[in-house]
User: What shape does this take?
Amino acid sequence: MLVRDIMDKDLTSLAEETTLLDAMSLMAIHDTSGLPVLNNEGHIVGFLSEKDVLNAVIPGYFSYMDENFHMPDLDRIKAMVKRVGHDPTRDYMAKNCFTFDESETISNAIMVFFRKDFRRAPVTRDGILVGMVDREKIMRGFVQGKFEDD
Assistant: This one.
């Protein structure tokens, strides 16, 4: 079975100049943990994840995570969102975005997700975005017995 057989064909993506607030809204509307970022020619130049958004709103959040870390109160978080909300996505996206070719096997995708620290990745055909694949969907496929032998 190939990545194209399980990918989500929703091509929702962000432009490099999309504001962080608009990106957050799109992620919420589409109930997704991340979106690819495309340049003006339509090529993938990055990926914005929930983790990237949290780091933008609460700088250093993940490096401070220990038993002594205290989350800022809601008013302070709102102020931080307001402060960075109009910044372009390109300022916060991961620029080294991993992509899968649609012809890769599910087995390969599983290994990549196992080795890398991300939940979703763009799927491409000849370098153009054609879908998305995520760990959750792969795991659900196994549980539901949907995968054939590669």
